[in-house]
């Protein structure tokens, strides 16, 4: 969204204040609460898995040397062995059969062939060992599988359920499904707008950031278009319905998320791709062994040693380590396949407000238009007038006054003017603060044109009907963004682009100093279209956003990254990776994590291949009995665990942050120069 935080802040106490508290506080605390157990459990599961393998291998080798396995095979009748094999391995056998019917070979296919060879050769202890390792590997894979996201249900829950409609000369509240095209809907202050439509009467300050991405609330009056799920913060409206439910802009957001999820291409595990060509090699070696030596046990040993469960765990164990370690560092990664995609990323598209910027307006300029007044006096008068206003810009004025050491006076006869501003009485004078509408025939000051050209929102201060000052507000860039974007370029990202629902001037003011392209005035369907466009060109696309209107693009992207601490729950659910704190350095960090992870996976696969090929040679020459061959399956697992455990340690950071420098980068200073430029200088 270009400004979910703006919506929360703007809606005041009742409409959105509580929601803001939930979004920021609860989301953050829950995220960290989930992160710590996940990280601890990831480390525990790795060590427990390694210890289990070590104990089993030692027991098998010892039992083989002492002849205990032969004695056990003679003591237990074969139907009991067969029952244990079938009962233990049935879930995996069913999956292997299903894959075979689809002409697909997986790592479990290889292990099942080894099991069949053990059963045919009568090597029952070896068969039980294979089933044990198969189930253990299957558990690890299941552990790393991502949980189904609830984005669509969460989006639907945000949709208005009822509307107040004018019927038979009165107002009646009806379910949203009963609202008809062309009817008149009445919206009172602080209410959510339930339909798309055009305002035919009334004035209100409307925060529609959830849909359009506008960082500032808009003033809605007759002829203004409004959207379902936006908020009428001040004033009231009468709206003629143009779309409702699934046909509304908000309804299309839900549909786009659904479509993006349904049409996402799955990412096949590297181990399964490896198995497709490894199986013929194993089959060839086993057949050659049997025809040359005629030794069925040696043939079974070939199949058993080659069909290591390490092929099944080479990828997921590395993913466990990375996901757990990332969670401790403030990154919630929803599945290993997103790490694989992120490692190949070539294009990054960005939301603006709440993502690149702080998501809340700040006063950047205070200009006195009266020679007898200073900027501090103008700001003090504006803060006094806005003292009891709920408008988000009013809060920005109060914050600026407080930071400048100014104490607002107690106003008299406070009056909110929906769609325009506020009016108060102070020491016998009338003070008005608001948009250009309050100028009432006065010409727009030349400085106002210059400030608007910079993409800033203006507030005019009048005393007794005469303009005495101008305040400019703008959403400011996060200070850590420029360095993070520079790191992304160093990591090989080919293209970075800003996608925003804000106007072109505001977008340019943010994008140009950063040296990135931008597209402005976008609705949710426009953002998802841009993502699809890059995907059609063969790019792996990363989308970074934080709000409801970003959800479709986050879901459609190969990897969607949500700014978790400030973003809406919908964006977090729709995205594949959530930043659990507002720290842009986490973006290049997660890219490095993804690449480290995939390098580790490739090493795991390579080590497993070399180990198994060596085992194939020894087994084919008769040096490995079946039970030892089955136990030898666990050999690569130790190497995989040791290699993957490196991912539990944080990687080295690059750039200025790694050296402990905390100063704001020069690019951020350029973007925010107006904050320090006129504001503090004029207050002196």
Protein model, in words:
It is found in: Cell membrane; Membrane. It holds the Pfam family Hydrolase. GO terms for molecular function: ATP binding; ATP hydrolysis activity; metal ion binding; P-type zinc transporter activity. It catalyses: Zn(2+)(in) + ATP + H2O = Zn(2+)(out) + ADP + phosphate + H(+). The chain has 684 residues and is of the alpha+beta class. The protein has 4 domains: 39-153 and 263-317 and 598-647, no CATH class; 162-248, Distorted Sandwich (Calcium-transporting ATPase, cytoplasmic transduction domain A), CATH 2.70.150.10; 318-356 and 478-590, Rossmann fold; 360-477, Calcium-transporting ATPase, cytoplasmic domain N (3-Layer(aba) Sandwich). It is built from 26 helices and 21 strands. The strands form 4 sheets. The protein has a 7-stranded mixed beta sheet with strand order 9-21-20-19-10-17-18, with helices on both faces. Strands 3, 4, 5, 6, 7 and 8 form a 6-stranded antiparallel beta sheet that branches.
């Amino acid at each position: 969204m270009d400004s979910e935080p703006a919506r929360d802040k703007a809606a005041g106490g009742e409409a959105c204040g509580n929601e803001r508290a939930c979004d920021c506080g609860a989301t953050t605390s829950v995220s960290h609460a989930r992160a710590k157990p996940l990280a601890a459990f990831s480390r525990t599961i790795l060590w427990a898995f390694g210890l289990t393998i070590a104990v089993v291998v030692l027991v098998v080798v010892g039992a083989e040397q002492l002849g205990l396995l032969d004695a056990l095979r003679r003591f237990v009748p074969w139907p009991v062995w067969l029952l244990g094999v079938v009962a233990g391995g049935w879930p995996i056998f069913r999956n292997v059969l299903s894959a075979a019917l689809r002409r697909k070979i997986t790592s479990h296919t290889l292990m099942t062939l080894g099991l069949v060879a053990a059963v045919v050769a009568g090597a029952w202890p070896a068969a039980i060992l294979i089933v044990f390792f198969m189930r253990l590997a299957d558990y690890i894979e299941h552990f790393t599988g991502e949980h189904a996201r609830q984005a669509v249900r969460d989006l639907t829950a945000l949709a208005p359920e009822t509307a107040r409609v004018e019927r038979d000369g009165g107002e009646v509240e009806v379910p949203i499904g009963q609202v008809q095209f062309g009817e008149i809907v009445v919206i009172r202050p602080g209410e959510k707008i339930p339909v798309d439509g055009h305002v035919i009467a009334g004035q209100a300050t409307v925060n529609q950031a959830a849909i359009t991405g506008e960082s500032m609330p808009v003033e809605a009056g007759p002829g203004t278009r409004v959207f379902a799920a936006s908020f009428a913060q001040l004033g009231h409206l009468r709206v003629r319905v143009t779309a409702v439910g699934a046909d509304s802009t908000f309804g299309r957001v839900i549909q786009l998320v659904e479509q993006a999820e349904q049409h996402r291409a799955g990412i096949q595990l590297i181990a399964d791709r490896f198995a497709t060509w490894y199986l013929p090699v194993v089959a060839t070696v086993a057949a050659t062994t049997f025809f040359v030596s005629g030794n069925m046990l040696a043939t079974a040993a070939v199949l058993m040693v080659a069909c290591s469960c390490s092929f099944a765990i080479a990828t997921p164990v590395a993913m466990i380590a990375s996901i757990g370690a990332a969670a401790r560092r403030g990154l919630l990664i929803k599945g290993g396949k997103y790490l694989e995609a992120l490692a190949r990323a070539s294009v990054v598209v960005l939301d603006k407000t709440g993502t690149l910027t702080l998501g809340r307006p700040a006063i950047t300029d205070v200009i006195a238009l009266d020679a007898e007044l200073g900027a501090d006096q103008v700001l003090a008068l504006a803060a006094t007038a806005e003292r009891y206003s709920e408008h988000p810009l009013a809060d920005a004025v109060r914050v600026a006054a407080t930071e400048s050491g100014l104490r607002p006076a107690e106003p008299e006869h406070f009056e909110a003017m929906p769609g325009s501003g506020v009016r108060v009485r102070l020491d016998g004078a009338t003070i008005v603060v608001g948009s250009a509408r309050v100028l009432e025939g006065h010409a727009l000051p030349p400085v106002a044109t210059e400030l608007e050209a910079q993409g800033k929102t203006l507030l005019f201060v009048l005393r007794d009907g005469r303009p005495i000052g101008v305040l400019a507000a703008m959403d400011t860039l996060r200070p850590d963004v420029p360095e993070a974007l520079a790191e992304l370029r160093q990591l090989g990202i080919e293209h970075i682009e800003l996608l925003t629902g804000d106007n072109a001037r505001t977008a340019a003011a943010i994008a140009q100093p950063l040296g990135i392209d931008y597209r402005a005035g976008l609705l949710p369907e426009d953002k998802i279209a841009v993502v699809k466009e890059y995907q059609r060109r063969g790019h792996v696309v990363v989308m970074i956003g934080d709000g409801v209107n970003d959800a479709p693009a986050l879901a459609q992207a190969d990897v969607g990254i949500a700014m978790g601490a400030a973003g809406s729950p919908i964006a977090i659910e729709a995205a594949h990776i959530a930043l659990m704190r507002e720290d842009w350095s986490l973006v290049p960090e997660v890219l490095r994590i993804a690449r480290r992870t995939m390098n580790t996976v490739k090493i795991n696969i390579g080590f497993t291949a070399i180990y198994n090929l060596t085992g194939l040679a020894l087994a084919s020459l008769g040096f490995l009995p079946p039970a030892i061959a089955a136990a030898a399956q666990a050999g690569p697992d130790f190497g995989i665990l040791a290699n993957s455990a490196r991912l539990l340690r944080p990687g080295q950071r690059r750039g200025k942050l790694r050296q402990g420098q905390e100063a704001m980068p020069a690019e951020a200073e350029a973007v925010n120069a107006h904050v320090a430029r006129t504001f503090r200088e004029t207050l002196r």
